[in-house]
Design a protein that fits this description.
By secondary structure, this protein is mainly α. It is built from 5 helices and no strands. Helix 2 (27-61) packs across helix 4 (77-85) and helix 3 (66-73) packs across helix 4.
Length: 121
């Protein structure tokens, strides 16, 4: 279970507070608490992300591997690489990396190579 991992006391307090909000009996109070938490999170997230990125950059500057940093943070190697590059996790700042259909040296695409395309003249 993820909660059994070594977690900082500060993170544990935040997680406990979130669980307390989930367990609130009064829906109006719960909604207000959710609003307050989401506002605080959106205001502090950029600063926290930048502090984490600076730490990752310092570790990389000290020649620490992505794998070691990932283990320290409890995230994947690709997440460490994203943090290092300054990607936000929303996908909005990450460049597209999927495979794109590319023309070969003759200008033909895959369909034309398979005989399914029309040759331009």
């Amino acid at each position: 279970m993820a909660e059994e991992r070594d977690v900082t006391e500060e993170a544990r307090r935040v997680a406990d507070a979130l669980r307390a909000i989930e367990e609130m009996d009064d829906p109006a109070q719960q909604a207000r608490a959710i609003t307050e938490v989401l506002k605080a999170q959106s205001e502090s997230a950029p600063t926290l992300k930048e502090k984490r990125r600076k730490w990752v950059l310092q570790r990389r500057g000290a020649k620490v591997t992505y794998r070691e940093i990932a283990e320290e943070l409890g995230v994947s190697i690709s997440t460490v690489q994203d943090i290092e590059r300054g990607y936000s996790g929303s996908g909005k700042t990450r460049p597209r990396t999927g495979r794109r259909k590319r023309a070969d040296s003759d200008g033909a695409d895959g369909a034309e190579q398979a005989g399914g395309g029309v040759s331009p003249e």
